[in-house]
Amino acid sequence: MKYFELTPELLNIRGQFYPVNQIIALFPGEDAARSAGRTLVEAGISEDGLSLITPEVMMRDVVRSVGSADIPLPSPGTEADTVRRFGQLAAQGHWALMIHAPDNATAERVMKTLEEHQQPPSHAQRYRRLVIEDLA
Question: What angle do CA 25, 29, 33 make, to 5 degrees?
Fold first, then answer.
């Protein structure tokens, strides 16, 4: 499992974090996130499609990408609120996995596997082309 790196394709046109075809799942610590990643690989999810996001990287790269996106007017989408929630959990020490889920079948298999894991995610979102879907 590789460490997360923020790249331009993970941002929307306004420069905000919006990783299309990815699930972001947060866990209450490093061990839980790494264990969940191993479980996903054992369930047939490609290890190449998994990235580990530390709380520090979440705060420095992901949360910072929204900045003051909805000032002076509210954002038309939920991108900023979603990323702020990631920031709240990262500030509490949560680690995250970014999981490539290009279709419904993969997303369902990922979430079924994670829900049955000894430590299910404390929060999970699936980014689709025009929708951010609450998963956990």
Answer: 45
